[in-house]
Amino acid sequence: MVAVSVGALITVSACSSSSDKTANGDTKAASSGKGPAIFVVGGKADDPFWSRVKRGADDAAKVVKSGGGSVTWLAPKNYDNLGPDAAKLIQTAMSQGADGVVGPDWVPEAEDAAFKQVVSGKKPLVIYNAGGIDAANSLGALNYFGSDEATAGKAGGEFFGKDGEKNVLCVNTLPGAANTEARCKGIADGIGENGGKSSQLPLPSSKFGDPTAVAQAIKAALLKDSSIDGVVTIGTGDANAAASAIEQGGLADKVKLGTFDLDDTQLGRIQSGKQLFAIDQQPYMQGYLAVSALYAYIQWGIELPQKPILTGPAIISKDNVETAVAGSKAGVR
Predict the structure, then answer these.
(1) DSSP string covering 11-22
(2) CA distance 270 to 157
(3) Bridge partner list, 170
(4) Which end of the chain is more exposed for a tag (fewer CB within 10 A), N or C?
(5) What fold, for 149-261?
(6) How far apart are CA 264 and CA 59, in angstroms?
(7) Which residues of 254-289 are buried (b: 16+ CB within 10 A; e: fewer)?
(8) Which ranges of the sequence are coiled-coil (predicted)?
C-alpha cells in the first residue's frame, strides 16, 4: 500500500433531522445526522502549488461542515509513481465511505479505472486541475475545474514569441503526466505560430523537487545548444532551479525565463526583471470551486450548466505583477 498523507480537514457534525435524498439517488440516514463525506485527492503537502489548492478546499470545507459533512484530503508521499499512487488514493476514498470524490486525472491510463469505480458506485465525481473536460466527460464526472493546460501553454508560447524568443526549452520533471505534456505541447504550438520553436527536456520524476539535479540538467542543455533563448518550467520549484542554471551559465542577458504556476519567488523575479512571466492557473479557486460544487450537487442537486469551469490561464508579467503580489500576500495566489 502506498504511503499517504490523510488529513481530515473538518469534523462531522449533526445535520438534518429527517430523511434526505442526495442528487445521485442515495438516501442519507436521518438517524446518523451526518452530511456528505467528501474526499479530495491532491498533491503532496510540501508542494507550494498544492498548498494553495488545499487552502481553497479548506475554505470550502467550512460550508460543508456547517451542513454536518466532512472533507478529507488525500495526498501521495511523493510523485515517483504518481498515476498508480493516485489510483490507490481514489480507492482509499471509496473504501472509507466517500459520498463524493474530487480528483485530478494526472495519468489517465493509471487512474481512470479507479475513477470509473467511483461513478459505477453511484457516487458523484469531479475532475479538477488535470485532465480537462474531455476526461470529465469520458469518466462520467459532473464537471472539470481548472486551467486548460494546452490553452495555458499556448498563451505562454505566444508570450515568448511576441517578446522575440525563437527557441524555447520546456523542462518537464513529470514526463508522461497528461497535464505537463499538454503544457509543453501548448508552448510549442504558441511559439510556433509566432515564428519560433520549442523542444522538451524530459527529466525523471525522481528529480522533481531536487533543485540541484534539475539545475544541472538545464545548464547542460543550455550550454549544449546556444540557440536556446527561452526556458519554461512546469512548476515554481523547477523555475527556481532554472533561474540558478541560467545564472550559473552566465546567460542572464540571453535566456528569458517563464514558468507555469506562481509563488512569491516568481513574483519577486518578475518585479526585478529577472523573469519574463508566470502562468497562473489560480489554484485556490480550483480547490474552492471543486469542493463547493460537489457539495451543492450532493446536498441540493445543483449542477452548473457551464462546462468546464476554467480558473486560468492568467499571464503574470511586469505589467500586472503588483496585483498578483497582493493576492499572494493573502495566501491565495
Answers:
(1) ------SS-EE-
(2) 17
(3) 200, 232
(4) N
(5) Rossmann fold (3.40.50)
(6) 21
(7) ebbbbbbbbbebbbebbeeeebbbbbbbbbbbbbbb
(8) none
The fold adopted by the segment(s) 4-147+283-311 is Rossmann fold (3.40.50)
> How far apart are alpha carbons 153 and 90 in whole angstroms?
28
H/E stretch holding 101: strand 100-103
Which tens digits make up the pLDDT trace of 272-321? 999 999 999 999 999 999 999 999 999 999 999 999 999 999 999 999 99
Domains 4-147+283-311 and 149-261 share a fold: yes
Residue 35 grid cell: 452530511
Q: Using 50, 70 and 90 to split pLDDT, how confident is the model at 11?
A: very low
d(CA 227, CA 168): 9
Cβ–Cβ < 8 Å for 149, 130: yes
Q: Which cell goes with 140?
A: 462520467
Contact status, residue 224 vs residue 207, Cβ threshold 8 Å: no
